[in-house]
Structures are given as structure tokens and as C-alpha cells.
Amino acid sequence: MKINADTDRCIGAGMCALSLPEVFDQSEEDGTVVVLDPEPPDSMKTGVTRAVNLCPSGALSVEE
Amino acid sequence: MTEATPQLDTFPMERERAFDPPDLLTHWREEAPIRPLTFADGHEGWIVTGYAPARAILADSRFSSRPELMHSPIPERSARLQSFIVPPGFFIRMDEPEHTRYRRLLTGQFTVRRMRLLEPRIEEITRDHLDAMERQGPPADLVRDFALPIPSLVICELLGVPYDDREKFQRDSAVLLRLGSSVDQITAAMADLLTYLHDLVMRKMKEPADDLLSGLIAGGELTDRELAGIGLLLLVAGHETTANMLALGTFALLSNPPQMAALRRDPTLIQNAVEELLRYLSIVHLGPIRTALEDVEIDGHLIRTGQSVLLALTAANRDPGRFEGADTLDVSRSAQGHLAFGHGIHQCLGQQLARVEMRIGYPALLARFPGLALAVPADQVPMRTDMAIYGVHRLPVTW
């Protein structure tokens, strides 16, 4: 799976970094999403899906 | 497809039970999670009580947050909206792209990591207030002695607002949140607060300190009036919300002894417990409200351009279609995905701060006072049904 993050849409709520810090972080400068691991192993799929669904701005998506 | 037809339904503010949404909202959710609602000025709009449509509308850029487009179910609020002028920087009442320009300047200050760095100081502030309660001895008013001063002091230190001025801004912010405040009272309180914050910004321009407002000034992207508007928004949002969660959450735990016992027994439950209390209590008592910028069809209903939609988060967060046994407080469940902080581009900027304050506050209180109990019968606790943010006016406790 491949994670796409649209930092223009991101509003820096931090839900992804809160729910899955292994994969998501926030920029020190403006709080927008930083994807630490854009192609995480399939074993993390549940957590990634949850983080994507929690995103309030729709900035995250996953390609299979 | 149905269209809004004239109905006499108006929004209920009173609650039958302290922790539950008004029964009428629950009834409406069971009957039709989207239904027509008559607003205070006679406007025919909509109310949404179901989780899925509420979440969808909050994330939909075809709905606006601008007050001049908005109608309110409360007569005093309705009169206010027509004359409300959004102060520069007050981005909660703006749409894209203005909203994002302001929010982006702040989000770096409210990240998960930044908020965790505040933990030692928040723990210290919490300890100081528990020490003072213990020294003074029971009974105490948990709102006055614990729930209000802790987040208030934290947001003051973060922003760089002198805590000694709290009587003034707490009084003014209470006027803004009181649903029955007249337009004149609200206009005066708003002007007062803006003047106060503008003076503060001017002082900080001359004498910068290590705080958020000074940092924004140094960034050089904002005018003094924008800085005052942002300061006003963060100051009011920062202390009234967490304060009410801390007090109402404690009241809810005291009223659900098995849940309180579970949390005392297993402190690792605190993360789930905080999310569950946020979901179960959903303290945004009224709204939020959005207005359609174009015709939008949702679940077979046509919401027309200009129609206001009230999103009843209290009812949406109790939707059994999303949360099993939704009317039960269960601190062990995963309540992630709740709408207590909203959803979409306006989702609470300070939510990670609120989480840290609650994750520290509840366990510290429970650990300090193993015999914590209400000092009055539960039905005598004065509830904030008269305020935009729900909670308790006072919470007399003993230990």
C-alpha cells in the first residue's frame, strides 16, 4: 500500500500523528502531515486505514 | 427527494437527564437523522442528528461557517448573527481560503509533539491546584478550584496573557457563551476583549516574551488587529472547553461508579476514557451551524442554497449506528472518530492540548482523593443548559 498526503488540504489537526505515530508525524513549521513511511508493511493496514478515516480534512488517501 | 416544508419544530435546549442529549433530539435521530427545523427568525432550515450525515456535512466545502449567512435556533443568537462582524483573524467564522491562511500560522504551535512538551508544566499546575484543595479541606467547588483554573492558566501561559487579568476575560467570555445574552451585552463583551487583547499585542510588540503571541508578532505576517482577533479566539476557546470537560467528566464518573472504579483500577484506560468522555458528553450544546452555498442533496434531502443546517453533535455522538450501546458510558471502548472536536477544516485546533490536560487532570484528581464524592445530591448540581458550552456551573465535592 502507498500513502498519499495532500499537505495543501491538511489542516494540522494531528489525528494521524496521534493515532499512528510510527507512520505519521507533523511538520515543526506548520503542523501539516509528514509521512514517515509512505509504503508501510501490510501488517499496518488496519492502523493506516483508521488514521486515514480520522483525518478531518481528507488530506490522506491510500493506494493499494 | 423531500424538500423542507414548514414545521413547528424548534430546537430543544433543556435536558431531561444531566449527561444525555435532550430526548427530543434522540427521538428525531430515530425518526429522521436529517429533518426540517424552524429557526428563531422563522427560517426553514434543517437539523442533523445522525452521525454519518453530520460528519459528511462538516467535511463538505459547499457548507459555509460565515455568520452573516447563518440562522440560529435561539432568538438572542439570531439577532446577534445579523449584526456580527467577524473580527480580523477570527478564523473559526471564515471559509477557505481565508480560514487556512490564519490556521496555518498556528498549527505548528499545537502539534501532538508540542503539546506533549507541555506535560511537565501541566502536571505541575495540576499538582499545585490539588495541593491547594487539600490544604483548604473539603468541601470544594471543583469548577472554581480545579477544572476552570488549570486550563485557564495553561492557555494564558501558552499565549502570553497575564493570568492575573482572568477575572476580566472570564467574565467577558461567559457573556459570549451565555445563550440569553443580549446583542448589546455580546457586542460590549466582544469589544472589551478585543481592546484588552489589542493592548496586550501592542505591549508585546515593544517587549516580546517567549509565548505564542510574541512568536506570531515576530513572524510579521499579521496586523495588530488580526493578532487581537486570533488571541480572542484562542483565549476563549482554550479555557471554557477543557474546563467544562474536566468538571462534567468528573461528575459523570462520580455518577457511574463501576466506570470510575475501572479507571482507578487500570490507569492505562485513560486514553480511551478521555475519548469516551468526549463522545458521551459532547459539550458543544448548540450547533455547530453551517449554511449551504449551493444546492446539496444528502440522503435524499435537498438542502437549498442559503439554508442553515444545525449539526446536533450531542445526538450524533450517541448514534447507535456508529457506536454500539451509544447511550452507555464505557471507558474501555474505543470512541475514536467521535465528533466532539468537530470534523472538517474547522476541527478543533487545540484538541491535542485538551487531550493532554484531560489525560493528566482526571487521573491526578482520582489519585489524590480516593474518597472523592459529590457534596450535594446529584439533582442539585446546576447544569449549564443556558450556555453554548455545556457542563456544570458548580460541582460541590468532598473527600
Automatic annotation (TrEMBL), chain A:
PROSITE patterns xrefs: 4FE4S_FER_2
Entry keywords, A to Z: 3Fe-4S, Electron transport, Iron, Iron-sulfur, Metal-binding, Transport
Keyword Plastid: no
Source organism phylogeny: Bacteria, Bacillati, Actinomycetota, Actinomycetes, Streptosporangiales
A Pfam cross-reference name: Fer4_15
Cofactor(s) demanded: [3Fe-4S] cluster
Protein name as annotated: Ferredoxin
Entry function: Ferredoxins are iron-sulfur proteins that transfer electrons in a wide variety of metabolic reactions.
Listed transmembrane segments: none
Endpoints of the signal sequence: none
Organism of provenance: Microbispora oryzae
Domain of life: Bacteria
GO MF term set: 3 iron, 4 sulfur cluster binding; electron transfer activity; iron ion binding
Residue ranges of every copy of the 4Fe-4S ferredoxin-type domain listed in the record: 1-29
InterPro entries found in the cross-reference section: 3Fe4S_ferredoxin, 4Fe4S_Fe-S-bd, Fe-S_cluster_ET
From TrEMBL, chain B:
Keyword Repeat: no
Keyword Membrane annotated: no
UniProtKB keywords: Heme, Iron, Metal-binding, Monooxygenase, Oxidoreductase
CDD domains: CYP105-like (cd11030)
Listed GO MF terms: heme binding; iron ion binding; monooxygenase activity; oxidoreductase activity, acting on paired donors, with incorporation or reduction of molecular oxygen
One Pfam match: p450
Alphabetized PANTHER family for the sequence: CYTOCHROME P450 YJIB-RELATED, P450, PUTATIVE (EUROFUNG)-RELATED
UniProt-recorded name of the protein: Cytochrome P450
Annotated organism of origin: Microbispora oryzae
